[in-house]
Amino acid sequence: MAYRWGFVDPWRELRQLQREMNTVFESAFGRPAEAAPPCNVLASENDFLITCEVPGVTLDGLDISVMGDVLTVKGERKPADEVQPEAYHRRERRTRPFNRSIQLPNRVDPENVEAEYEDGVLIVHLSKAAEEKPRKITVKSV
Amino acid sequence: MSIVERDEAAPTRTDTEATRQVRQFVPDVDIYETDDSLVLLADVPGVKAEHLSVRLEKNVLTIHGRVDPTDAGGRNLIHAEYETGDYYRVFSLSDEIDQDRIDAKLRNGVLTLRLPKAARAKVRKINVSAES
Description:
The complex is a heterodimer. Chain A is mainly β. Chain A has 2 domains: 1-34, no CATH class; 35-130, Immunoglobulin-like. Helix content of chain A is 13%, strand content 37%. The radius of gyration of chain A is 21 Å and the shape is elongated. Chain B is an all-beta fold. Chain B has a single domain, classed as Immunoglobulin-like (Sandwich). In chain B, a hairpin with a 2-residue loop joins β9 (103-107) and β10 (110-116). Chain B is elongated. The mean pLDDT of chain B is 85. β5 of chain A pairs antiparallel with β3 of chain B.
């Protein structure tokens, strides 16, 4: 691949290489080098917002649970059609089941969990447990 | 039947608010062949149908999706494993694809493109009758 000045994305070729390497590892060891979906965690004083990229799963293929300060997301996506392996020209998308546990910095309220799935992105909203939320102390003037 | 990746960088796009360059990602794809078509599946999580463009021009198929960042609602990012940006990937198609009947669907962050084979590229089965 030729290097071009004014390249828009200098990491493109590296990522391409990484993808090819992953494919090599997968075929060598029979499992993806990176199977877990990537997640981001956002926090405020009172809550957490966790977003995970899980394209192509169906709602019944997702299992979300909360315990203490750990959020667990399990899921699996099934191939859409029955495709014979030799019919593939390219196979980069992962179909293995995944099981991710994310430890949060605070305990969360297990009764107060909201999850939505939109455009292949799972968004989980968690409230911090009451005892973990900051308390405002009013200072009285004497 | 062939579909070949082209090494092309996406046109530059700048975030209107932050005036920074938007990151670009190459979406993972599966491509498989059935009796009557080529099927391309691309993972484009976070892309809404109105922000996904699939273009075919002179046998060049361009997939370009745009992701708007999640509304953080004033929260801070404390752990990051992915970034949002654009998805861009370009393929060259052979003439054996019936370019007028391409069908594209977006569902749960996965683009499904069905590229029907032109009649002349389809496998024809010829019945052999026994002569006695």
